[in-house]
Amino acid sequence: MAGAVASVGSSATSAFAARTNKKGTGKMTYWNHFTGAPERAAFAETTEAFKKASPAIDADIQTVTNDDWMAKYIASTTAKSGPDAVMIDVTRFTDMLRIGGLRDITTYNKQWPGKDAVAGDTPAFSFNRKVYGVPFFTFIDWTYYRKDMFEAAGIKKEPTTLEEFRAAAIACTNPSKGQYGFAMRGGSGGGGFIVNVLHAYNGSLMSPSFKATLSLDAAVEAMRFWVNLAVKDKAVVPTVATDGYAQIFSNFYTGKAAMVMHHGGSFIDVGKNLKYGSEVMTLARPNGPKGQLGFQAPLANGVFQHTKNPDAAFEYASFLGSPAAQTTFLKGTGYFPTSTDAAKDKFIADNRQFDTAVASLKTLPKTYTFPGLTAWRDLTCLPEFQKCLTGSQTPEGAAKVIVERLNTVAKAAAAANRKYYSDNRGK
Amino acid sequence: MTTTKKKKRPISYHLVNVGIGFLAIFAIMPLIWTFYTSLRTNVDINKFPTKFSLSNLSFDAYVGVWRDTNFPLLIKNSLIVSTLTVIISLTLGTLAGYALSRSKFKGRQNVLLIYLAIRLVPGVLLLIPIYIFMNTLGLLDSYAGLTLAYTTFTLPATVWLMKGFFDSLPPDLENAARIDGCSRMGAMWRVSIPLVLPGLAATGTLTAITAWNDVLFALMLTSSDRTRTWPVGLKEMIGEFQLPWEALTATAMLSLLPVVIGFALVGRKMVAGITAGSLKD
Amino acid sequence: MSTRTALPPKKRKSPYRGFHSILEGKYFAWVLLVPSLVLVVTFIFYPLYRGIYLSFTRTVLLEGPGSTFIGLENFRQMFKDSLFLLATKNTLIFMVVGLITQLALGLAAAMLLSQDRKYIGLIRVLVVLPWFTPPVVTAYMWRFILDQNSGVLIKMLESVGISFGPAGLWSNPDLAIYAVLFVDLWASYPFFMLFLLAGIQGIPKDMRESTSVDGASSWQHFRYVILPLISPVIVVSSILGVIHLINSPTLVLLMTNGGPGDSTTVLPLLAFQVAFQMYDFGYSSAISVAVLAAIAGFAMVYIRFARFGKED
């Protein structure tokens, strides 16, 4: 056994982990929500490395789609039986914690030598001074733009503010040629952008003690800006209300849109379709009156509450937190590492496009995580925005609904929080 | 109607032909277009305006799907689960259908309704309890668990159809065998079953296709590629980031393939069988 | 199953004699029914019990584990919830329009396909194929055919002057639900066709054919001879169709997911969202129980009209 550990040269951190945390054995099932081919390939490569580093653990990597994630998570939590380790998307972290399927891994984390390299993102997966997740990598929001369309529109300077972004979008729009400035995501997954724009106009939306701090005036301004980009300026691809990830990128690749906003996760895919430097460029997200339009959203891996094999589960989660695993993902998918050691990789230094990410790391706010965030985002913000696009709602009316609903969510979160503290006192 | 019978057909005859042609086109054109799309390149598909051409067609997307995905494994899982479901559902359903056809006990209609009841419960109420149930039995992420769920959900149709087929047999045949000394089960096995074989084939195909097409239970009850079925794999592959159209359509066509083959083998019998069996309640 | 069963039952000396005598006796039916009934009842009982129980409680997972009994509060909340009312309206549209279109086309198709023609068997099989297409395939295939940018049907409609504007069919809150209904028509009308075809074929041949080719009397023949004879089948298939229309939101889920806005949110979809996105299992169960009660009402109608076992 000692020989097996010693034979792993590259992943020093996991070898360290073996000395401090109890070494795991046996079967270990892990749930992630990655469905893309590059992500799966990166997982296959990482799993091979993990099998070499921890030969006593039989790791089974399983995929559950985002759409079905919470249903399966809730079912396993209710049945007290499920995977051993789980992926944690930061926006769902508090939801997952409250539902009760995440195990407190504070002690494990303390004994893990690799913890300092990812310490920057660990607070996002901590609550009540307890740690629930080992940071994996972080999604840094940015913009892609097509050089040809910017040049044709005579745009010399990259837009840095929302107003400049709007001007650039309008300049690139030419409906008679079927060209638009911006491939806005107003369909599936579009709710995140509403949260972005609300933040850019308002600053923080929620205090740490779960008090909603979104003012109606700011919300109205934000909704007006985002809706009018489509409705008044008509600088947005007209199918916006139904455009999800696939559609906005298809519009971008086919030259129907000059700009598209996403995070670094699409870096490799974009490179397959357009050439960086000559055809496509990355660009930091524009600044609004009160903040930048976008977030950095880390992703972590945690241990399932009802696992019978927490040692192996943590060993795997911490392996994914190690520089070796993170570098594999960086190269395979473009996902930006949370490990400060992995961030020093030549791949980032050599790649000019990552300058945007490195710069944005310093300015972009960390994303929110509060109980009820995803429901508010997907079932209130997005439908209200879609109603504005189709003319059945006004930006002012939508803003009112969005603010009211956020207040309700905050009140429920605060009440649940008090209950949570009293329930967990002394534990 | 009397004189020009064969020579000149009435206009309504031709109108009927037009109607039949329309129905056939309506049914298969989308499928043919999807198949055609799967042979094109993504560049051609997205070209504006859409042009119809037969050049530049290839099976590359199929090769890609076969090579880059778990297609073969997932198809194998789907085949195993569907086959097991057919065997168990037909066995239980035939026995129940036979009993309901031959015995005239009181409350028979209520028993038939109990089978239907399982179809009435909305899916959202079923998901978590069935997960807990399967977990208790230790059948999560196994062929057995999925088969059990599918068997239950295909039983109503199997029981109803098989009852109809047994009802349509003349009772004298079995009675004759019974007088000759056959037990009840012997008479059923030797006399009735051979006569309802076409119906059995039809019901089996219906059951297989239901199991093959399900997404809801497969999503909930399986999580690894070892047991995951093909439609779930398809949904997962499309995922939120979706596939390019030609790959998407190729996977769609591939998952339709067993249905088409099943149809080619017993399609006519099945349609005839379902139409014959469904009404004899 | 070999030589023994051939012998008269009384002469046998089988260890299973008791079992065999039950099979020969009055209660043989129950012996055959028990395995499948146990399976169905087990599967139905617990979910149903749990669903009904939860519908009378406040069970919000974000508030921590456990449920509080709140009586009819969830049901009261429904009538104040504008989204529930909208979803009810959409569900009714989906049910009524879906039923009428599918039944009408199914009936017309059954009339056409009951005629004697060359290859009619083959054509019947082709027409039924959409019903057996996996719903996942149906949804993505039609999203592609009706896609604003590359959808062939959209382009064909545009070439004859029917346009949905630059935003497209799926962005139109008034039309999106009908687009889904159209796709559901393609996928589900063969079910009605099969049932009605069976009904028509059950009519004796000499009664089935109109004795006149004159249009008006053909219609009268259909109206006064065919229709009354197949009306029980129409009732039965309609109710099964309604169960399917209400209980299977797969197409709505995959094609619009309730959007744009809330314009295509139907009740089962709302129940899913309330449970798995808002984690409110009490309210979600209440919605499902209400839907279940409504469908059970239809099932009662089913019993009345279909009259199981009436033949004896």
Provide structural commentary.
The complex is a heterotrimer of chains A (427), B (281) and C (312). By secondary structure, chain A is α/β, with parallel strands linked by helices. In chain A, 47% of the residues lie in helices and 14% in strands. Chain A has 18 helices and eleven strands. In chain A, the strands form two sheets. In chain A, strands 1, 2, 3, 6, 7, 8, 9, 10 and 11 form a nine-stranded mixed beta sheet that branches. Chain A has a two-stranded antiparallel ribbon with strand order 4-5. The radius of gyration of chain A is 22 Å and the shape is globular. Chain B has one domain: MetI-like (MetI-like fold). The longest helix of chain B is centred in the C-terminal third of the chain and has 33 residues. Chain C has a single domain, classed as MetI-like (MetI-like fold), CATH 1.10.3720. Chain C has a two-stranded antiparallel sheet. Chain C is mainly α. The radius of gyration of chain C is 25 Å and the shape is globular. Chains B and C meet through helix 1, helix 4, helix 5, helix 6 and helix 7 of B and helix 2, helix 3, helix 5, helix 6 and helix 7 of C. Chain A: Keywords: Cell membrane, Lipoprotein, Membrane, Palmitate, Signal. Chain A: It holds the Pfam family SBP_bac_1.
Strand order of the largest sheet of chain C: 1-2
CATH A-level architecture of chain C = Orthogonal Bundle
What helical percentage do the residues of chain C reach? 55-70%
CATH class annotation of chain C: Mainly Alpha
Number of domains of chain B: 1
Mean pLDDT of chain C: 83
- Helix count from the secondary structure assignment of chain C: 14
CATH class of chain B: Mainly Alpha
What is the CATH H-level superfamily of chain B? MetI-like
Oligomer: heterotrimer
Strand content of chain B: under 5%
CATH superfamily of chain C: MetI-like
> How does CATH name the architecture of chain B?
Orthogonal Bundle
GO biological process, one term (chain B): transmembrane transport
Subcellular location (chain B): Cell membrane
Keywords (chain B): Cell membrane, Membrane, Transmembrane, Transmembrane helix, Transport
Transmembrane segments (chain B): 12-36, 79-100, 112-134, 146-166, 187-212, 247-266
